[in-house]
Automatic annotation (TrEMBL):
Positions of the Helicase C-terminal domain: 488-673
Keyword Transmembrane assigned: no
Domain of life: Bacteria
Keyword rRNA-binding attributed: no
Protein name, as recorded: ATP-dependent DNA helicase RecG
Enzyme class label: hydrolase
Amino acid sequence: MISMDSPIETVLGDTGTKAAKITKGLGLRTVGQLVHHLPRRYVRTAELTTVEALQEGELLTVVGQIGQTRRREYADRRTGRTAYRVDTVLHTDGPSLRMSFFAKKPHMADWHERRLPEGRRGIFQGKVGRFNGDWQLTNPQMVLMGTEGEDAAQLSLETLGDLYPIYPLTKGVDTWDLQRAITFALAVLDEVPELLPEAVREQAGLVDAGTALEWVHHPKDYAQVTRALQRLRFDEAIVTQLVLARRRRALARLGARPRAGRSGGLLDAFDARLPFELTGGQREVGAEIDEDLARERPMNRLLQGEVGSGKTLVALRAMLRVVDSGAQAALLAPTEVLAQQHHRSITAMLGDLASAGLLGGAEEATAVELLTGSMTRTQRTGPMSRLASGEAGIVIGTHALLEDKVGFADLGLVVVDEQHRFGVEQRAALTDKAGTPPHVLVMTATPIPRTVAMTVFGDLEISTLTELPAGRAPVQTTVVPVADAPHWVDRVWQRVREEVAAGHQVYVVCPRISGDEREAGQAEAGEPGDTGEERTERPLSAVEEVVEELRAGPLAGLRLTAMHGRLTPDVKDATMRSFAGGEVDVLVSTTVIEVGVDVANATAMVLLDADRFGVSQLHQLRGRVGRGGHPGLCLLVTHAEVGTPARGRLEAVAATSDGFELSRVDLEQRREGDVLGAHQSGYQSSLHTLRVLRDEETILAARAAGVALLESDPDLRGAPALAAAVEALERSVAADFVDRS
């Protein structure tokens, strides 16, 4: 019996190195993996392939027609004997290509001539090259139409239809190798397991699993391809959504203590002192959180919003409500700079409401503690003691909060800032410190399209802030193309001087600290789509070099300071305090200032080598300016040329300030696995055919079907194949990504 779990060798046979290449190069080890290795496109066998443009080095697969074929004789350089070259022209619906075949014996040259007569069509595959000004197809492989038994590849002609599948390949494997192997596998499989219950399949209007595989590999027309892919994508979507739905149900069953707050407490005192009105979005999201906190099951909510939309204020009000309930709240930040920034801004917002136990503290006050990894044992003793006793209601910290020695009297709420920078184990280490499951609020300033949030953060309820608070000024973003207009660089530094002369401050951001050393977490030089040629031609801007060049050159006389991740925590904190206090004119920094840093007087940002940053990162960075009511300026300095993907990213950022629109651009360019952090590669391994932007309707339908299925059959006993697939995903490494690893 041959099943989906059978080793791939059972259908590949004794093909030696070919089988090894398919297994190693493509990672296909079972028959099921082989038949789910889907074509990336199809060529029409009844017409010549349209070829609009050719590029040297590309692997081209086309339906073409043989033109003139000629045999030439030449003297072999090594032996001096007569050898033969058969040259032919391959016509496409576009440029023609030359193909050459070499033979040492006359009968082999005759064979090439016989099988390549003028007018014969076939499917041809090879690398595109140039020779004497003509396009050529190097080392071509082919399936010729209207012949039998001449090539090993002819075996695939038995199933050759109007559409021929072109598969993702690896070195040494041709598309017809896979087509033959998959055709044979589908023919000898005992059965194709049906993942979906019949009722789900009928309601969604989907074909059965066997038909889907047959149509995707041997389609009669594109309508069959469409319906086959619809079914296969639905399978992926429902398995993922069931994993997330089961987690939501499991969390709801855990139970939690309601934290409804009280009238006349800390939150009411804080609201009464606010010098501004909350936005409509902040009030609406606040009401959703209040409702969650009052329930007897843990809140598990994602709060996403544009840069500067007021997420921290919403989170602080939730923390104050929990403190009013007699419990404690912890805010987990990914970096010390951000933790210190949160501590400064929250204590400033609270004023004497953050001074419990101190002279001058308000009657309703609580204590707000800071706990970071760089603090000495002596410095930690006081905060840890006040957390353990319950004297401190709020703590803000980094990974130091996760240490075993840190305890709480009653941890009621965990707020996680920039969740994608933490692993699931790290979040669990903090929530496990609570006697009963705490409520969890996850914040991100990276706008996430709905289907991404639904698929990646699908076990969280989602709240979105889109309205910016009053006082946020627009930020003008301009691309400075050094390659096209090198003299513009002088104008960049003139604009910096003008901002400083007006009493404002400026960020200058570099992709490197010094030489080739990167900031931790910084994207590598050469974002997706770049050629990478500049890596060896031109060193990237580095903080330590740039700050000295600016001091001695265009910004001489201004107060410049460097900021990067290799500085000690004390120095970083002192530097940010100096900048926030107006003692520094220009802060030359890495992306350590990307999130959370809030200096109202900073009105301009210069990003050097801006093409080395991702779209979402650029949007985050420019959100650091224009926060104090003054118009902002963001200058994207780049050597990227017009028409390159890198330049396109910068132009997209300059064209809009809509973070959600930019997140779609980012997702389309970098694919789902990278949009929330490059380390989340499990997403790419868990989603093969599904794309969260393109397949929104499929994901929504699968989510609804999954929820309904669990309501009627919580253990999926009536769908054993589906239950097995869900459990496999839960056990796999990919599940760590779904859990936002």
